[in-house]
Amino acid sequence: MRVKKAPRKFHFLGICGTAMGAVAVALQEREFTVTGSDENVYPPMSTFLQEKGIAPLEGYRAENIPADADVVVIGNAMKRGNPEVEAVLNRRLLYLSLPEVLRNFFLRGRHNLVVTGTHGKTTTTALLAWIMEKAGRKPGYLIGGIPTNFGEGARLNDSKYFVIEGDEYDSAFFDKRSKFVHYLPELVIVNNIEFDHADIFNNLDEIKLSFRRLLNIVPQNGMVVVNGDDPNAVEVAKDCLAQMV
Predict the structure, then answer these.
(1) Rounded to whole angstroms, how far apart are CA atoms 48 and 182?
(2) Are 113 and 163 in contact (CB under 8 A)?
(3) Domains of the chain, each with CATH number or no CATH
(4) How many whole angstroms separate alpha carbon 108 and alpha carbon 106?
(5) In CA terms, which of 24, 60, 161, 229 is 20 to 30 Å from 236?
(6) How many other CB atoms sit within 10 Å of the CB of residue 124?
(7) What is the mean pLDDT of residues 18-26?
(8) C-alpha dihedral over 180, 155, 135, 192, to 10 degrees?
(9) Residue 3 pLDDT exceeds 60
């Protein structure tokens, strides 16, 4: 779809998800107008959103989407048949997945450090963000949990560094690529690779392919850090053109 003007008004489907809510608030703080809805609206996320000036709507209805919405952000759990999804399609509105919003509004132009792997992503992401914090870099970060040293799972600031947990799960019902391929990686850490997410991957080879697609977009002057004790991780990284560690 051709975008005629810079978007200013966002509507989120599934706004009470941890990452969705954090990104919605970050956009609001950048003076975008943000609305959103969710099936289940309750504390602590509902309180967090309301304190930041966003009143989430409970339940999905076509009329929840403002007439002047520029972009609809569709959460990973949304499926065809959802009243708001159908309204987005019927009205030919511009829609994006959350990973696409992160790429276009927060990650572009930064040094992005993407932590991946079947196990240990959250812990490793939190450790890396904390190391950079103590080194005075004040990174932005998005972690799939709430580390006690930071007290929050996301910080979407204006630092030139961004540490993000790279999930191999799919991006949205309309984009079955892994989320991490959207994250414009400069550095990728691969902890390990095993068969997981049997609801979207048929076998280990399909998971390996997703990791190869990620490593294929790391620039030559970027870096890939691989767990040398994990044969699957070593295998998928063997043809990567970036510096290997």
Answers:
(1) 27
(2) yes
(3) 9-93 (3.40.50.720), 102-244 (3.40.1190.10)
(4) 6
(5) 161
(6) 19
(7) 93
(8) -30
(9) no
4: pLDDT confidence band, cut at 50, 70 and 90? low
The tokens describing 167, both together, are 């999930």
Question: Per-residue pLDDT tens for 50-69?
Answer: 999 999 999 999 999 999 99
In terms of Cβ atoms closer than 10 Å to its own Cβ (0-12, 13-18, 19+), residue 235 is middle
Judging by beta carbons within 10 Å of its beta carbon (0-12, 13-18, 19+), is residue 203 exposed, middle or buried? exposed
Distance CA 211, CA 215 (A): 6
Structure tokens at 161: 């560094």
Pairwise CA distance, residues 121 & 184, whole Å: 18
